[in-house]
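Encoded backbone
================
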Amino acid sequence: MVCETVFLKNFKMFLYLLAGGHAAVTVEPEPVAPQPTHEDYIEMVAKETEQVKQDYEAKLAEMKMMFEAEQMSKQKLQEEMVGLKDEYSTKVRAIEEHYQAEEKTVAAQDQGLVSVTPSDGSTMSTKNSNDNEVCFLRFFHQS
């Protein structure tokens, strides 16, 4: 590139002289950029290495945050799954108990007994009678 510039200036001077130019024109060479020294290379390598290191550390920190967020999310999901499983088990158990109690009631009715479970957990039983007999009420606490 430097050679092309010097050549171009010399060529222009040659054309000027051919055209009858008598002025003494001196061509000053373009200042040439100094060649990098070993220390310059070391400095450039250090700068680029530092930039790569900073980029690496920034990406690593971002990935670490994403990993921790994912771990927290995974833990929360696992807790929700355990809660859902417990809720499912509780509801299934309540349904089974409800139908077992209902089945006992139907069986008692078939035998002439009516079983009622009040809100306090005690049970009332009465003997059904076709006649106007005295009804016997008995309360007892379920265990």
About this structure: The beta strands are 113-116, 122-127, 138-141.
